[in-house]
């Protein structure tokens, strides 16, 4: 097994930093050391480190500008677990304390106990593997960039591979937000045209008066404002693929021109006298049933048959509900990548609530709700309320959490009182390290002043 890669950023040069660095080298980890923030930021952009250690010194707290750069380093390395070795006085700084609580895995205060440091680094490495397993967030080639392991998704991927080998038109059906454009991208990427352009056109988003000139282009002087020749979107896709999304919104008169293009493999710019041959594969999609649109006269029957050579249906999310946890975890990695706060995952009740929800907005709705939760959550685990969903059976999850938090706080306070505010003795009685006890004391707002316990008005951050 390869040694884990560790970055040591020392902002307190001297005997303390030297001793820590020597100990880390002897631990067998692949250690990289630096003593300035800009170098650390560059290293983090070039390499992946499992753990980064920040060393600050007694009496030299980080100023606001340095804290801002540390935050930038944390954001630049979302797959890296951060730990801090700092002076107890550093924790008096509210910005530094907020950074440790919000973005770091853990911290330890000087003087260090090296066995505790080793345990903290081991735990950080293991947590990193849980949060970012090897190749996490990267879709394997055989998944075609599509998240999901359900039978319906496996069948969809098999269909995509089959139709990708042809140049015949493809018609993708499916509800809004189900992933029709993603399927079109996968077809293009698997086809012999993958080196050519993929041009995406939302037929419902272009004004009817502009659709013809946008799709087919125009010549200079064709109309007022046409001061030069311009290629249309179909011509821009020459040698590749054009994806006509929501083709059911295309006006009937434009449907005639599109049918001619499909038949003759050429287009005529607005104002042009001659046609221009183009080599373009057409993939179309619609959330409305085009057969029904044909029946009521809103879509040309001959165009429908021209497009419906290779039909594919993208299933709605409610029909592959077993894929919801995978999709939610993938979206969480994407949305949390640039957030300073640490979001570890979803609570058990959030997962149950997501699996019980019918997702009328499909995959797009799931992405939007996860994005909202990453911004709104004040906890390490996202709960149903963060997602804007009612918990299953209306159970309020926070009651049990509050009970656990209260019990944990009372036990720590009682043991510290019995130990005469001696943190070392209290940690030994509780069966945890001093570093862990200090973190729990900070979490619950328990402080020691003049050998007596003081309860602060509230914890620094709820968990």
Task: Summarize the topology.
Elements: E1 5-10, H1 15-26, E2 30-34, H2 37-46, E3 51-55, H3 64-76, E4 81-86, H4 94-103, E5 106-109, H5 114-131, H6 151-164, E6 170-173, H7 180-190, E7 198-202, H8 208-216, E8 217-218, E9 230-231, H9 233-236, E10 241-245, H10 252-264, E11 266-267, E12 276-277, E13 281-286, H11 290-295, H12 301-307, E14 310-313, H13 324-336, E15 345-346, H14 348-356, H15 362-376, E16 381-382, H16 384-387, H17 398-418, H18 423-430, H19 434-444, E17 446-449, E18 452-455
Parallel strand pairs: 1-2, 1-3, 3-4, 4-5, 6-13, 6-14, 7-10, 10-13, 15-16
Antiparallel strand pairs: 8-9, 11-12, 17-18
Helix pairs in contact: 2-3, 3-4, 6-7, 13-15, 17-18, 18-19
Structure commentary:
- This protein is α/β, with parallel strands linked by helices and 463 residues long.
- It folds into four domains: 1-136, 3-Layer(aba) Sandwich (Rossmann fold), CATH 3.40.50; 145-315, 3-Layer(aba) Sandwich (Rossmann fold), CATH 3.40.50; 322-396, Helicase, Ruva Protein, domain 3; 397-463, Orthogonal Bundle (Arc Repressor Mutant, subunit A).
- The protein has 19 helices and 18 strands.
- The protein has helices at 15-26, 37-46, 64-76, 94-103, 114-131, 151-164, 180-190, 208-216, 233-236, 252-264, 290-295, 301-307, 324-336, 348-356, 362-376, 384-387, 398-418, 423-430, 434-444, and strands spanning 5-10, 30-34, 51-55, 81-86, 106-109, 170-173, 198-202, 217-218, 230-231, 241-245, 266-267, 276-277, 281-286, 310-313, 345-346, 381-382, 446-449, 452-455.
- The strands form six sheets. It has a five-stranded parallel beta sheet with strand order 2-1-3-4-5, sandwiched between helices. Strands 7-10-13-6-14 form a five-stranded parallel beta sheet. Strands 8-9 form a two-stranded antiparallel ribbon.
- Strand 11 and strand 12 form a beta hairpin.
- Helix 6 (151-164) crosses helix 7 (180-190) and helix 18 (423-430) crosses helix 19.
